[in-house]
Specification:
Blueprint (H helix, E strand, L loop, with lengths): L6 H66 L2 H8 L3 H14 L3 E7 L5 E5 L13 H9 L3 E2 L3 E2 L6 E11 L2 E10 L1 H11 L6 E5 L5 E4 L15 H7 L4 E6 L6 E8 L6 E7 H4 L1 H47 L14 H42 L4 E5 L5 E4 L1 H7 L3 H4 L10 H16 L4 E2 L6 E4 L5 E13 L2 E10 L1 H64 L5 H32 L5 E4 H16 L5 E4 L4 E4 L1 H19 L6 E8 L4 E8 L31 H11 L4 E6 L3 E9 L10 E2 L5
Parallel strand pairs: 18-25, 19-21
Antiparallel strand pairs: 1-2, 1-6, 3-5, 4-5, 5-6, 7-8, 7-11, 9-10, 10-11, 12-13, 12-17, 14-16, 15-16, 16-17, 18-20, 21-22, 22-24, 23-24
Helix pairs in contact: 1-5, 1-8, 2-3, 8-9, 13-14, 14-17, 15-16, 16-17
């Protein structure tokens, strides 16, 4: 049947349908936008009305509260209540109620809560109302109190009471209570609302209805807590919402505002159907206009169909080629008329589609290349790579994962990642995974923990796992790089065993060295003592022989005898030095704070007195106090200064300089510098060895023990000792000791050589 309809008819019907759909769509869009605009305006207006009503309620209650407060401060009323002159109190209340219309009735309670006077009169006089919250709070706080809504026994309608205590000397003599006129609040909110189609109501802090723009009526107060907007308001907030009325079932546009200081709230609502009525009316008006436009268009199309058929056919052919994927087709321009505009628009659309398609193809190609590159990198990664989604399912794995765990790829993808870990790790892993997706950043997994994987055959092996986030179209994924560290663990174990073995060997070697040193010291001490007796005999008998037969000996024999005596004396000094050197190792350190200035001066004077020399130039800088054994430190100074004097004795102007430098970590570096014969720096390593001498006895006397003693004493104090020098230019000897603190043992500083 459609084939028998002419192209012109089809064109007219098509254009009519196209316009109908287009205009219909425009109508629906206009309706939606108009509704949204109306919704925003209504909610904003309702919020303004609710704010205004809340302010009015707040001022109304504040005014009524100030009236009650002012009344309790009137001397006459408080005096009559104190004297329990209830008839006079009734007269005062009568005048009070005539002047202030905010209250339906007022009454006075005595300190026990008994109603003594009520105006207008009712049957509640003499009844105990001490259970009411307004009486209890007014007595407890000694201040005015606004109650929630409740049903009055006498009036049999909802009431809000304002109570204020009548005080005298800090004691409550009575309580004045005013029943707030809720009908006036209903009138207020009724006057405030803009249209009769909206509703305004006030609820107390418990969600009970206080006032309504349509009136409240008698009976128990209505519980409004079932309304979503009231529940939101009871949280102490203000705002707007669209909700469904739980009673009528209508959808309402509402606003809610809390009344400051009371915990009450004001709610303004308007049915959606009424709010959108103007939009619905506009919609149907546009629908009629659209229908007329469609009919007119069809008539015009029928008249001009023959002129449009050929261009439209060509346009249709071109559109068909575009639909088939040929974006090179273009329609000839038909001039400046509508058909020309249509063809130009069509050509522009085809060009845009061609450009978009090319860009889309490039983007798809780039995505494919990036995905291929990513998969290639993942596949050839040296570690097992597992990509997991938020639910813990494996999305992608590489070949190393198959090799490491023994599963095929099809056995892993889509399965939970926990299958790759031992049973005892699986229970808590989901919590760790959830925390990673909350704070996803690259990090090692299980820092400080021993992690293990489980192969398909059930065997476990140690692993290291590095985690990182990966953004994908489906959301954030977790990448895990898993490395088998079995070999590393074995190497670590071997290193640990080697370290333990080395430590045992070092301890054993140290013990052997300690024992050898002790044996060497004991041997040295024993030999020195055993040599002293025969040496004394040699020296003594030699002197006797020289005294008795010295004059009778020839020159050669006298020389031999003198050589024996000199050698005996030299050997005696050597033995004494060996004994002193041995004592430096056995002596227990008695460290204390030592003043180096005084100790150096004392040793210097001793050496000058012993040598009888006074031709030395001494340059002594200020020296610090150090922590040391004063007796052993005296030995150090004696050896260093006597060496300096000995090796500068041949200088024309012998000079010795003593000073200190800043050391490391609380230590002092002390130096002794001279301008004597010096030494060759290549023999520096021999200076502090036992029996190591760089000069012969013919040049300078000595035993080769002094500097070895210095090094041993300084090392026992935890210090260092070294020397610098050049032949003919003098030498400088350094040693380091710990600086003394402000607090010392015994609270004294020592400069003496005695222990």
């Amino acid at each position: 049947m459609l084939k028998s309809i002419s192209l012109t008819t089809k064109l007219c019907l098509g254009m009519g349908a196209f316009l109908a759909l287009s205009l219909g769509g425009m109508r629906f869009v206009a309706l939606k936008e108009n509704r949204e605009r109306i919704r925003t305006e209504v909610l904003s207006f309702n919020l303004g009305v609710a704010t205004l009503a809340a302010k009015a309620v707040e001022q109304y209650v504040a005014s009524a509260s100030s009236i009650i407060q002012e009344a309790t401060s009137r001397p006459k009323l408080s005096h009559e209540i104190k004297d329990a002159n209830w008839p006079e109190v009734a007269a005062v209340l009568s005048n009070f109620l005539r002047n202030f219309k905010q209250f339906d009735y007022v009454f006075v309670q005595d300190p026990k809560g008994i109603i003594r006077v009520r105006f207008p009169e009712a049957g509640t006089v003499g009844q105990d109302f001490s259970f009411r919250d307004f009486f209890q709070e007014a007595v407890r706080t000694r201040n005015i109190y606004v109650s929630g809504v409740y049903v009055s026994k006498a009036a049999q309608r909802p009431v809000v009471s304002i109570a204020a205590p009548v005080l005298e000397g800090g004691s409550v003599r009575g309580v004045l209570v005013g029943a707030l006129s809720l009908s006036r609040i209903s009138q207020f909110v009724s006057w405030i609302r803009e249209k009769k189609t909206s509703a305004i109501y006030v609820v107390d802090r418990k969600g009970l209805l206080i006032a309504h723009s349509e009136g409240v009526g008698n009976g128990p107060p209505k519980d409004m807590r079932g309304e979503p907007i009231v529940r939101a308001m009871m949280d102490g907030k203000s705002g707007t919402m669209e909700f469904r009325d739980r009673q009528g079932g209508d959808t309402l546009l509402g606003a809610y505002v809390s009344v400051p200081g009371l915990g009450w709230g004001v709610v303004v609502t308007q049915p959606v159907s009424i709010a959108y009525a103007s939009a619905e009316k506009l919609f149907w008006r546009l629908s009629g206009i659209s229908l007329g436009v469609v009919l007119l268009t069809i008539l015009l199309a029928l008249a001009a169909a023959r002129m449009l058929v050929i261009p439209i056919q060509k346009l249709a052919e071109a559109a068909g080629r575009v639909a088939a994927g040929d974006f090179t087709v273009r329609v000839p321009d038909r001039g400046k008329a509508e058909m020309g505009l249509l063809t130009r628009t069509f050509n522009h659309m085809v060009e845009s589609l061609q450009s978009s398609r090319a860009e889309l193809e490039r983007e798809v190609e780039e995505r494919k290349r990036a995905e291929t590159e990513f998969r290639r990198l993942l596949e050839f990664a040296p570690d097992a790579m597992v990509i997991v989604d938020r639910e813990g399912r494996m999305v992608m794995v590489n070949a190393q994962t198959e090799i490491l765990f023994g599963y095929g790829r099809e056995e892993l993808v889509g399965r939970p990642v926990e299958m790759l870990m031992p049973e005892h790790f699986r229970g808590r892993h989901s919590g760790h995974r959830s925390r990673f997706f909350v704070d996803s950043h690259a990090r090692p997994m299980g820092v400080g923990l021993e992690l293990y994987g489980q192969r398909k055959d059930g065997s476990e092996f140690p692993v290291e796992i590095s985690l990182g986030p990966l953004e994908a179209r489906s959301g954030i994924l977790a990448t895990a790089a898993i490395r088998d560290i079995t070999t590393q663990k074995q190497i670590e174990g071997e290193i640990r065993c080697l370290n333990e073995d080395l430590e045992h060997r070092v301890l054993a070697r140290t013990a052997e060295l300690d024992a050898a040193n002790k044996e060497l010291e004991a041997f040295s001490y024993s030999v020195s003592h055993d040599l002293r007796a025969p040496l004394r005999h040699m020296e003594g008998f030699g002197k006797l022989l020289s005294k008795r037969a010295g004059a009778d000996l020839d020159k050669q024999s006298s020389h031999y005898l003198q050589t024996i005596l000199d050698s005996a004396a030299r050997l005696s000094r050597l033995i004494e030095d060996l004994l002193a050197f041995s004592r430096t190792s056995r002596t227990t350190l008695q460290t204390r704070s030592v003043l180096l200035d005084a100790l150096v001066e004392e040793v210097k004077q001793q050496l000058e007195a012993g040598s009888g020399g006074s031709g030395f130039t001494w340059i002594i800088h200020s020296l610090p106090s150090v922590e040391a054994d004063p007796t052993l430190l005296r030995v150090v100074w004696f050896n260093l200064l006597s060496n300096a004097m000995k090796f500068t004795s041949s200088a024309s102007e012998p000079r010795i300089e003593i000073g200190s430098l800043n050391g490391q970590d609380g230590e002092a570096v002390i130096y002794v510098k001279d301008n004597g014969v010096g030494f060759d720096s290549k023999y520096e390593h021999k200076l502090f060895g036992v029996f190591q001498r760089l000069h012969s006895d013919d040049q300078f006397e000595g035993t080769g023990i002094g500097l070895a003693t210095v090094r041993r004493i300084i090392h026992r104090h935890g210090g260092r000792v070294w020397a610098e020098g050049r032949l003919g230019e003098g030498a400088t000897f350094y040693f380091s000791l710990k600086l003394a603190g402000k607090d010392h043992d015994g609270g004294q500083e020592d400069s003496s050589g005695g222990g």
